[in-house]
Write a structure and sequence with these properties.
Elements lengths: L1 H10 L9 H18 L17 H16 L2 H17 L11 H26 L2
Length: 129
């Protein structure tokens, strides 16, 4: 998605007018946040109007900064939390194979260790002349 955003934005770059880089960066941040929130329903990103007049190199830098800031934000954390919660809610739990409880795994481990110790003892005794 990030590559698509950068490619789409730089394809539209130009130097028509003077623009405010901070306003452009905020628009890119908001666009990224909205695209993530839309998930599979997100539409391809277009260069925000606030970025008109920003050259391609600066636009790429601003897009990278906006994406990094978004990924470190509470907005991104909330998007991850929402995605995980949605995945849990939407999971086909009837098709999930139950996993053993931790106490069962501990018992299985101890049984396997005991068998290995016994086998080691038996082979060690057999190897001794």
């Amino acid at each position: 998605m990030t590559a698509l955003l950068l490619a789409t934005l730089t394809a539209c770059g130009g130097t028509e007018a003077h623009a405010d880089p901070q306003a452009c960066k905020k628009a890119l941040y908001d666009q990224n946040r909205d695209s993530v929130a839309a998930g599979d329903d997100a539409t391809p990103s277009k260069k925000p109007a606030a970025c008109d007049g920003i050259d391609d190199k600066t636009l790429q830098r601003l897009a990278g900064e906006a994406i990094r800031e978004y990924l470190a934000s509470d907005d991104a954390q909330q998007a991850v939390d929402d995605a995980v919660e949605g995945a849990i809610d939407d999971a086909p739990w009837e098709d999930v194979t139950p996993t053993p409880a931790a106490s069962d795994l501990g018992k299985e481990f101890n049984d396997a260790k005991r068998k290995l110790d016994d086998l080691t003892k038996e082979t060690g005794d057999a190897a001794t002349p």
